[in-house]
Every structure is written in C-alpha cells, then in structure tokens.
Amino acid sequence: MTGIEIALAGYLVFGQPTGNYYGAITKNSGLQAIHADGAVSLRLAETGRTEETGADGSKTTVIRLKDDLYPFEVTRFVRSWADCAAVETWLELRHSEPGPVRLVRADSFAAPVAATSGVVRVMSLVGKWGAEANVSWSSVGNGQCVELVSNSGTRNAWASNAAMMVEFGEGVDEETGRVLGVALEWPGTTRRRVLRKWDGTRTEVFAGIDMTSGPYTLDPGVTFTTPKAILVWSEQGRGAVSREYHRWAHRHLMPHGYDLHPVLLNSWEGAYFTFTEQTLLDMMDGVKEMGGEMFVLDDGWFGRGKYARDVNAKGTAGLGDWFVNQVKLPHGLKWLADEAAARDLQFGLWVEPEMANMDSFLVEEHPDWILREAGREPIKGRGKTQVVLDFANPAVRDNIFGQIDAVYAAIPSLAYVKWDCNADINNPGSPFLAADRQPNLWYDYSMGYLDLLARFQAKRPHIMTQACSSGGGHMDFGSLRYADEFWTSDCTDPYRRIFIQWGASQFYPASAMACHVTASPNHQTKRVTPLKYRFDVAMSGRLGFELHPKDMAPEEVAFAKNAVADYKRIRPVVQRGDLYRLVSPYDAPLAALMYASEDKGAAAVFALGLKIEGRRLQTFRLRGLDADARYSVREIDCGERLHAEPPAAATGRELMERGVDVELSGDYDSAVFEVRRIDAD
After folding, report:
1. Catalytic pick from 359, 490, 578, 637?
2. Fewest beta carbons within 10 Å, which of 185, 192, 201, 218?
3. Is residue 257 part of a domain?
4. pLDDT tens, residue by residue, 92-102
C-alpha cells in the first residue's frame, strides 16, 4: 500500500449507492450537501481524469465528478512528489443550482483504508495553553468511532492538533508497524474521525474542516476549496511518518525551506511591557556577546495617546493601532533596527494582526470591524478588552495590511516577524456576513487569515515569520505555508518543553520549533533548573533566548557563549537532518533523540533527563548512520562532568547495534553528543 493508493481510494459521499446487495447508500461520509430544493443526497459519477506535472516536479491527478441529477460538480486532486512520500489531496466544489447549496460536511479526505487488523489506534496531539502537543492514543474498537475536534477558530492547535496517526496492528512503535499519517494544511476549525466497521473488516478515515455553527452556504458559481490533507503511509513505524512530514515541509511547504534559522533573543520574558530604548540596547549587547544573530522586539512598542499599549503595563489597550509609541521609543523602530545592525544583529518585530482591543482608535472608529453577534455585548478576552477582528471582511484585512505594511516599510532591514494571536472566536458573528451566512464565519475567517499571511509573504518574501498564537495555537501546516516556524509554547520550562517538543516532532520539523533558554526560576512554573539543562533542551530545536542577559552571572554568560558556538556547529544537522526518537519520555524518566544528516556524515544526539533517582546508565542505540563508515563521538555543551566515555572511533554498525552508554543522575541532568564521520573531516 502507498499514500497515493490510499488517496485515490473511493471518496465517501453521503447518498452514494454502495453496490451492496441490499441497495444501501453511504451514510458515514466526508461530503454531504443540502441542495437548493432541500434534497440531501449526492450521487457522483466520474466525467474525466487528467494528469498534470508541476514546476516543482509534482504530479497531480485531477478527477472530475458530477451529480447524476443536480448541476453539482466535484473535482478531486491528488498530488505527489518523487523526493518524498507525502501525498496531498483536496476537493473543489461548485454548482449552478437555482439557489444556494448548504454544505453539511466537506472533508478533504474521506476514504476506507485497506489495512485490517485486530488493533487500530489513533495517535493525536492534545493540550492547552502552556501544555501543548501531549501525545495521546485512543483505541478504535469494532463498531466504534474516534472523533477529534478543534474549534477555537484561531488557536486551533491547542486542544487537538490538526494532525494524527492511525496505527494498524500490534506492536507499532518508532521503527515497526503500519501507520497512516493524516494532517491538514489548515489553521482553522477541524474534525477528524476514524471509524471501524462492526466486524473489524474495514476502517474509514475522515479529515476536514469543522462546520462549527452550521452548514456552509455556497452560492451558485462560487468555488469552495477544502484545505489540503497531507497523507503519509509507512510500513516502518511512526518515525518514518515523521521524517516524511519533515522532508515534505522543508521541500514543498515552508517559504525558506532548508534555510538555517538564526539564534535570536526575543525581548518578552526579559522585559515584558516595561522597557526603554536603553533596555533594548542592553539586550542587544548581551545577546551579541553570547553569539546571537538576531534581536526581536516583542509586545509593547505601539499605540498612542490614551490607548498607548503600555497603559498600566498590562497590555490592555492599543491593539489595532499600529503606530510606534513615540513616548516609549522616541527614536523609532528604524533607529532600533540600525542599532541592531551596528552590532551585526538582524532585527525582528512582534505584531498581532488578528486582534484588537476595545480600547483602541481602530474599534472606536470602526465598531463593526470586530466579531460580535447582533444584540449581544461582545465577550472580551485577555485583559477583559481583547476581541477578534472580522477577517471575513476584506476591508478589515486591507486596513490591517496597510497599517502593518507601513511599519515594515519604515524598517528596510526588517528580517523577522513574530505573528501572535491571543483570543478564541468567542463572539461567533460577523457584521459583514449576511444573516443567513453567519455559519460561514469559521471557514471565511481562516481564509482571511491565510490571505493576509500570503499578501505579506508575497510582498516581502525575504522576511522570516513565526506563527505564534498564545504559544502553540498556530502549530499547523496551514500557517507554515507562509511561516517558517511557530512558537512552540508560552511555557519555556525545559522539563515541560521535553514533552511539548516531543509531541510537536511527530509531525513538524525541528527548524519550525522555536525553543528558548529562559531565566530560572522559570516564569511559568517557578521550576529551578540548571543553565545547561535549559540549553540542551532548547538546542534540540531552533535555539533562542528569552531573558535579559544583564541578569546572568559572568560564568553563565561564558557558558552560553560556548553553548551557542556548539549549537551553530550542529545546527545544520538539527534543523535539516532526519529525526530519530530513541527513548520516549512517556516510557522512561528521560527522553533521547537524534538527528542525522541526509548524507549520514554527521549526527547530534540529545539525552534529556527528567527526574532520575540516583544514577541511571542508559544505552542509546543510534540510528540513521552508515553501517560501514567510521565515526567519532564526543560530548559537547559540557557542564561539570562528562556523561559518557565513547570510543575514539566506532563504525556506524557498532553505534547502531551496541550503542553508546550514557549516565544521567538526579533531576534535570542532560547530555549532548556530536557524531561525525571520520572520513568526512
């Protein structure tokens, strides 16, 4: 079985005759519509099929179908590439009926999977603010359905990430077993289902948008496009699925592909809203001394007059008014960017385009530009003043684009944008949409969000964007179409981050996971951890800082300089390499993972302890090496002691079969190893 075969399997449509001897129709479906005359069934017949070749070497099968009674058409797309095993599939729907058609369900993927087994399990990522991407398994018994739903409207990766793995058979693990990965390229509401027939002979898998408040009304002549579903099939366990998702994201999704991401300092936890220009200059000096490459100014730089952002230092005003706070930053943003450049640092900036404060000139002048239901007082979020802008309305998007684009234009050297989003859609009404189109909001809002991202990316393609949404709320492939990374979690506690990053790695590459070294005690959990531990956890993704360097002791700065230098050396293999998860933190009081370069010439191994009683000697059998090549293994980012005594040289076969013995002890102990093919030096 291949991903292409699964994608091309018969799409399940409500009302389609099944061919059953008793004349049954399909009822568990991915596509269901209410026609203009009130009829509820579809009976589609194929009218044509073509093959298209893309400029990127992709091959797309285009399948055209039409209802046998109604002027309702469906086009299915299945796209594949020669350089990765991922497959994209999606639908386009259109009709020319005399009135609107209501879409009850319009899944991107809805098909039976011909993999029968005594056991079917669904692996998903679940969580909340500060605890994203927890790995969860659900068994699908005979006659049962496992359903996964996320309907925040904005921060949809929190409760249930838009990706899952379906496992078929006993003993599925990182390296063995049949696994189907199903991920949606979508930042909005989602619903995914895995349904098993009563006798276990058939499993049906569905993935698509969630019609959260009712059917989507589709007018005649308008094309409705579902999100893309990305499928990966593996006969070699979960690890192979993850690596294919990472490879596909780098090669065919993320704007800057395999470009290395910089070591940066983000100002948030080091200053919050309370900063001056001198505060920011001091941060620049500090991160430069430690070897950093970029400074990012977070929230608090904008707003004016009575709605200045730093009122009471709580951020309860100013969102929607994208003007530099001249009182706080009298020299402006370009001056700050120039100061960064003088220190050989790139400059980045925080924005929150999707949101506004009730206390803002934007809302004061355009109260109809926020999401709200007619006749109801709007529910307000963060600070009891934050609301969501109506991105279904093109005029709202144009205004926000114009404001923020003017800010960007004033900073010619701007290299990075942190795009935040800190509220759910809790007012499910759009003043822009007609009364009978209100359920369309959820889809139209997400399309508006993607439209704005695309416009910024098209105008300034050199800018790297981070998709942030109260942490990992935008941890999705839909956002990564226009961004190169996401803020993995607002929780920067390294102990918790081990689990968060472990979960995120199931689908998303390390380069996309922003991982920052922060102060101790941690600001979210108050946990005290060693600086080395904080570095080692952050170095397993995109390393950065979120603290004020002046609060670090001289010996900590010296350690940081060495750690950053070590990270830069292994950065290419961490950010571009193939991931192998060696020991799960769900199975042991530690996590171990490694990255191996595609040419098998280099690797980086991370052993991250949790809470270990006494001493624990653990053997890590490495993966992804050339069995016949000779390698050196040395510990880097060293603290007070070495954690292993690897041989001066060993073959890849020895490292993969015999492994490396690593000793961890006590709470929050960790080790990082650099592996290099000797003949590659």
Report:
1. 490
2. 201
3. no
4. 999 999 999 99
